[in-house]
Amino acid sequence: MEHVFHISNTLNEVKLQTVDHAGRNHILTLILGMNYPTSPPLIQADLPEQLIGNMKKVNTISVMLDIVHCVTCILFPQ
Prior knowledge:
By secondary structure, this protein is of the alpha+beta class. The protein has helices at 49-55, 61-71; strands at 4-7, 13-19, 25-31, 42-45.
C-alpha cells in the first residue's frame, strides 16, 4: 500500500504514486471498467514534457516505441 495514492469511493479508480531519483512525483491512474478483470484497465500516466513533445512527431507505432525507449526507464517492483 506504500504507493497507493488514492482509491475512489466506487473502487473503479486507483492512483499509484512514486518519486523518482530527482524528487519528481509520478502518478499512474488505473481505471477499472465494469467488465474488469475480463477487460483490461484503462491506464493514464503523467509523462515528461520531452516525451509528449516527441509524440507529436510520431507516425508509426515503431517510432513511438523507439521514442519511449530512449526517454524512459523500467521500474521493477521491490
